[in-house]
């Protein structure tokens, strides 16, 4: 599977990617979750005229590799390394290792087979490696011929977009509902309407205390009151910050995060950062062709992922106090290249990393335009899946400088600016290409004191890694003798602040905004300023936010309107509160906004009129702590989480104070937060929905909305 589809230059993906008239993303692969294994290849963005050609190319690619005798040794070596790391890890992102192992158990146990078959792989893996040493890639050829080339049991499915499909579905649904009378007697239909009405009314009634008392509770006393200490070890080596984190077992691997400072990038160009990242990981270096780079990555790692990390940091002045709303001018802005490798291959991995970071990103002008279009398509699809995040970023950009930066990087603003580049007929793409290259150079030439090398692994592996670390810092980092050391972000405002102070960027306009997409669901949000600069924010505020989320918003949006979820987000850095509804099929903007507007009154009824903490407060404390602690981090995330705590200046003392305030939340805390919410300032709306929904809302209520269209791909 990896040699066929694992990288952009693999046997199947190579002939398909990079040709705009075919498509832009290959998906699929080997699915072993069921008794009948399947292998699929999918291509997104194919023009109708090329569907048959794409199908033939896939078949010919598979057949062709069997006819020439398989793959060369470098390709096989890269695939072996990738699968070896995957088997060692057995974890995926934030999923606990035990959950992933249990899923492997079910893949056999569900069909009456030995549940341990998918867990024990060492003997079979070593046997396969011996066969490959003897026979090379020909060991795969008979399997491929039988299972793929000569297999006639296959299906070709074509999916094409259709203008007006959402409206057709709505009309068909309404027609189906209207025609129900044809299949029911008048009495049955009347009974159905009555039962539906009764159900809706029943959902509005709060559960009685006796019923709620029967639900098992986690005693607050049983929650660990102490935060876990940050065990990251820091040192400065040749001006580079080196961070190491020891874990009990890293399965023979080291997890490597290498970060560089972004402060030399012109603020006007930061929206091009994701474009640069996409190009950097899909281009040649000074030493390697694009294909050679992919092979080197596969040979020594499980992949390298660039990640932007934009954090508020606490200003360190004479009057500083923890958890006080600040003016947002102090930011930590980094790009990290995250990856993992076998401990005995760390030196080779760091060499690959050096080539990509300091000598990569060598791409022709035409690739810039392709990368912009591909990124726009990814954002366009992501809006449908995660529209609430885009609404939240839009709101936060109106009230905080960090929010404005993130919205320029990953929000509607970024999509609009990329669209302007593509849609403007007179766009000089030579100039755009040069701007992207300037972004890359600004990262590469920064001073070493803005760089961080973080490595996580077992103690012995970390000790053995010291020579490779020194070699990388000494010879692997580009040396710019003219570089000026970066200042401490806690002491000095970020250089982007000067650009933000201009009329063009001084936060986003405080307007009510409707963002138009042709979606079957809607995303609504309302936010505002609750705490002023210099005001202390208590950890109990996050408990009240969770109380609103678990109770009032869940009842109104999820139970009564059928939304997928609803959130409350409170920021002590910026002093803001945002209410969000996620994938609401009801799509009634006025009704949703009324729910947000009634939050204060609903809280007043349940809190201000009671002498003790309201029902649900206990659960809010527990769920707030649960969200704060999360699941037990996997080895690849432990060092990363500690590193982020360091960058955010989130010391153990600060985290302990916040935790104590959560666990000690009182009725008085609830009252204070509720009063603050009732008196919030400059509230605004951001919503993603259809043009028809916004027009209807404006006609019914007179609501003034600034309309933004984003469906541009």
TrEMBL record:
Residues 159-421 form the Peptidase M16C associated domain. InterPro entries: Metalloenz_LuxS/M16, Peptidase_M16C_assoc, PreP_C. It comes from the Eukaryota. Pfam families: M16C_assoc (PF08367), PreP_C (PF22516). GO terms for biological process: protein processing. One of its GO terms (molecular function) is metal ion binding. Signal peptide: none annotated. PANTHER family: PRESEQUENCE PROTEASE, PRESEQUENCE PROTEASE, MITOCHONDRIAL. This is Peptidase M16C associated domain-containing protein.
């Amino acid at each position: 599977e990896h040699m066929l589809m694992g990288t952009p230059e693999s046997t199947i993906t190579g002939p398909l990617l990079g040709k705009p008239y075919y498509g832009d993303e290959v998906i699929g692969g080997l699915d072993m979750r069921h008794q009948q294994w399947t292998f699929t290849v999918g291509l997104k963005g194919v023009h109708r005229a090329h569907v048959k050609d794409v199908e033939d190319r896939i078949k010919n690619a598979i057949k062709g590799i069997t006819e020439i005798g398989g793959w060369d040794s470098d390709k096989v070596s890269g695939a072996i390394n990738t699968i070896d790391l995957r088997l060692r890890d057995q974890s995926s992102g934030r999923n606990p290792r035990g959950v992933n192992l249990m899923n492997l158990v079910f893949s056999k146990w569900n069909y009456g087979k030995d549940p341990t078959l998918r867990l024990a792989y060492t003997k079979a893996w070593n046997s396969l490696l011996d066969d490959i040493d003897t026979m090379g890639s020909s060991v795969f050829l008979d399997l491929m011929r039988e299972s793929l080339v000569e297999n006639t049991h296959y299906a070709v499915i074509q999916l094409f977009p259709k203008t007006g499909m959402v409206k057709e579905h709505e009309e068909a649904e309404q027609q189906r509902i209207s025609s129900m009378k044809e299949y029911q007697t008048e009495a049955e239909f009347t009974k159905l309407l009555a039962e539906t009405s009764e159900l809706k009314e029943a959902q509005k009634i709060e559960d009685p205390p006796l019923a709620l008392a029967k639900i098992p509770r986690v005693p607050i006393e049983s929650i660990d009151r102490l935060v876990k200490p940050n065990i990251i070890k820091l040192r400065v080596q040749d001006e580079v910050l080196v961070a190491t984190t020891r874990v009990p077992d890293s399965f023979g691997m080291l997890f490597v995060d290498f970060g560089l400072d972004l402060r030399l990038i012109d603020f006007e160009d930061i929206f091009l950062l994701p474009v640069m990242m996409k190009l950097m990981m899909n281009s040649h270096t000074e030493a390697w062709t694009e294909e050679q780079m992919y092979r080197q990555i596969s040979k020594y790692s499980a992949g390298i992922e660039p990640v932007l990390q934009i954090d508020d940091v606490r200003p360190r002045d004479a009057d500083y106090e923890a958890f006080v709303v600040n003016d947002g001018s102090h930011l930590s802005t980094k790009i990290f290249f995250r990856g993992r490798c076998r401990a005995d291959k760390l030196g080779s991995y760091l060499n690959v990393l050096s080539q990509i970071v300091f000598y990569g990103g060598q791409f022709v002008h035409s690739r810039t335009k392709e990368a912009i279009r591909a990124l726009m398509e990814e954002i366009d699809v992501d809006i449908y899946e995660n529209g609430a995040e885009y609404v939240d970023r839009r709101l936060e950009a109106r009230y905080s400088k960090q929010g404005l930066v993130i919205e320029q990087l990953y929000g509607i603003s970024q999509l609009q600016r990329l669209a302007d580049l593509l849609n403007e007929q007179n766009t000089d793409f030579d100039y755009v290409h040069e701007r992207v290259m300037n972004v890359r150079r600004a990262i590469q030439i920064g001073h070493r004191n803005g760089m961080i090398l973080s490595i996580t692994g077992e103690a012995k592996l970390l000790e053995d890694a010291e020579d490779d670390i020194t070699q990388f810092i000494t010879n692997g980092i580009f040396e710019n003798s003219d570089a000026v050391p970066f200042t401490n972000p806690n002491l000095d405002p970020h250089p982007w602040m000067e650009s933000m102070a201009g009329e063009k960027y001084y936060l986003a306009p405080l307007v009510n905004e409707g963002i138009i997409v042709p979606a079957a669901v809607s995303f609504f949000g309302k936010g505002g300023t609750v705490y002023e600069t210099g005001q202390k924010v208590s950890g109990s505020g996050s408990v009240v936010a969770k109380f609103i989320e678990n109770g009032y918003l869940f009842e109104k949006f999820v139970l009564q309107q059928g939304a997928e979820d609803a959130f409350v987000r409170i920021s002590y850095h910026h002093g803001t509160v945002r209410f969000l509804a996620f994938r609401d099929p009801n799509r009634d903007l006025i009704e949703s906004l009324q729910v947000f507007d009634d939050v204060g009154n609903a809280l007043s009824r349940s809190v201000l009129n009671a002498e003790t903490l309201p029902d649900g407060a206990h659960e809010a404390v527990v769920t707030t702590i649960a969200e704060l602690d999360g699941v037990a981090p996997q080895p690849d995330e432990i060092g990363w989480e500690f590193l982020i705590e360091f960058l955010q200046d989130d010391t153990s003392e600060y985290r302990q104070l916040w935790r104590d305030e959560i666990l000690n939340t009182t009725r008085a805390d609830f009252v204070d937060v509720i009063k603050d919410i009732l008196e919030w300032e400059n509230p605004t709306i951001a919503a993603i929905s259809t043009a028809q929904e916004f027009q209807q809302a404006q006609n019914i209520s007179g609501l003034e909305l600034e309309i933004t269209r984003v469906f541009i791909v």
